[in-house]
Amino acid sequence: MQERDFRISRNKLKLVTTFLVVLPLIPIFIYLLNFFDTSLSDNPSDWGTFGDFFGGILNSYFSLLTLLITIYIAYEISNLEEKRNERNLSFERRKLLTELRESEFRRIGSELRKLGDLGEESGRGKILQNVYSQVQFYGFINKHLFPFLSEPVFTSLEGSIGWYSIYYNENRDLSGKGVAFLSLNCLKHILEFSEKTQQYILSEMDNTN
């Protein structure tokens, strides 16, 4: 896109340059066409008239040239300002998105850490269910921030926590092999999800810079 714009600008510059070169030659050509066969005059007043003729043409030409250059400079300055504003807006948008991603990641991270300390037996089922609900909600509202939330790296985490919650609420036991397996499975998916999220945030930060 930038290369195409550059070619267009270069072609426009060539066209304008050609026009500015040809323009002052037109009256000279017309003058020579009409007075080519006449001999050089010895009358100073004729030369004065000749000078006035070309002086008037050149003055008008340079005035027009100055006006065109001024317009062109104003246009380029306006164009540069517009592009700079667009870059600034894009940078601010990416910066805000990065901050939102980091904030949401910290929030879900604090929820996932609760799985490492389920507390008293009477409240374990509630904690598991609450964490599972938070993970589901996180996946629902943050797909615009993290496009990979529909991929296995997140859906597997969501599923493992769901099964962990269901198993515990049915068996009320954290000492069995089944719940130990589910706990390790959750930990595995949490680590994979955390790594994926951190990599994504860092890559987006690199794009911002």
From TrEMBL:
TM region positions:
12-33, 53-75
Keywords (A to Z) from UniProt: Membrane, Transmembrane, Transmembrane helix
**Name used for this protein in its record:** Uncharacterized protein
**Organism the protein comes from:** Adhaeribacter aerolatus
Domain of life according to the entry: Bacteria
